[in-house]
Amino acid sequence: MDHRRAAAALFDSPTRGFDVALWDGAVLPAARAATPGRLVLREPAGLDAFLAGRSELRLAEAFLDEAIDVEGDLAGLLEAAARWEGPRLTPTLAGAALGALVHGAAVAGGLAARPRGRLHSPERDREAVRHHYDVSDDFYRLFLDRAMVYSCAWFPTGLESLEEAQQAKLDLVCRKLALRPEDRFLDVGCGWGALLAHAAAHYRVHGVGITVSEHQLVEARRRLAAEAPGRDVTVLPLDYRALRPDAPFDKIASIGMMEHVGRERLDGYFAALHRHLAPGGLLLNHAIADATPRHGLLRWAAHRRGDGFIDRYVFPDHDLLPVGEVVRAAERAGFEVRDLESLREHYAETLGHWLARLEASLAQAERLVGRRKARAWRLYLAGTQVAFRVGRITVHQLLLARRDAVGRAVGVPRSRATWYAGGPAAASATS
User: Fold this and answer.
1) CATH of domain 3-100
2) Whole-prediction pTM value?
């Protein structure tokens, strides 16, 4: 079959809301109002990713190989693709050998993560974390806020800048935890130290952060020295399983770390945090959750848990769990659930900021990490933004209490309104 005719047949769908540009300059117009982004097939080999046996991984690899591309709004194109019924496989196309339409499609190489050892062992988790976070601090600075907060921001009015929204999120976490001067505070997976520095400077806590990322360890220690001088706060190169049973902490935060834990280790994770929390203390667990575990972003493309694009190229061994599983595991460990809040729309907005910043600095990103990796991260940010936008995944802040002998949790307010008023300046003045 002629490549041009094959493309016309594949994309002949009344639900396709995006244009398709072919390698010879021809355009297959959208059947409905088109998104500002359009799919570009740079070569006939790009058709291969849409034929029988297609998967999200094969489509992503075709993008990395530049057999397919997107001009304009990448996130908009992905959202339109998520709402599309998918390529139309005629009997001829469905029965065709893949090689019949393709001449040597490239294989995306050199980027794939290959962590070794037993899944979610401390050693393998450390390797997976370093693959994701130790890319380059300068690369992350291209799209994160000044404090380098790599988790969902909070936009209380929707008018905040990314910097303002991330500071608002840090303070929301501190208010939910009812941080007070002299509290012993643990930040599990502390990133580049923004929450620790904020809690130390504005709430005067005694803080400990732990991370297994070498890059984050160095930057977090530098940040604390600069932003919380003289405070009793430190960062240790530790896995959460290696914490010593010293004096328990009054408050614990785990922000964007549980995604690395894995379903099989979830009970052990919550048991460890329960063990290190003082009676009456609070844990805030902030993590992405799988909202539709039976399919991926593109319903018409195969999605294999543990072997998708993000797992292979960006975030190895990550495991997004439905929030119900998380709540049950926390309760099995002895925690009481005091509050659960979804911030799904806030994460979609956060990722929109990150993607725009990365795209504005794409040439610099390519110089730092290479063209293929920069494309992988652009696709990762756009795809994740759309997954939040359409409800494929979500994110929750789960406030948990280890009750004291008479069933109390210290600092949980009668009215949640106090969490959403005030700010760090007010907190500093009153503490």
Assistant:
1) 3.30.1050
2) 0.92
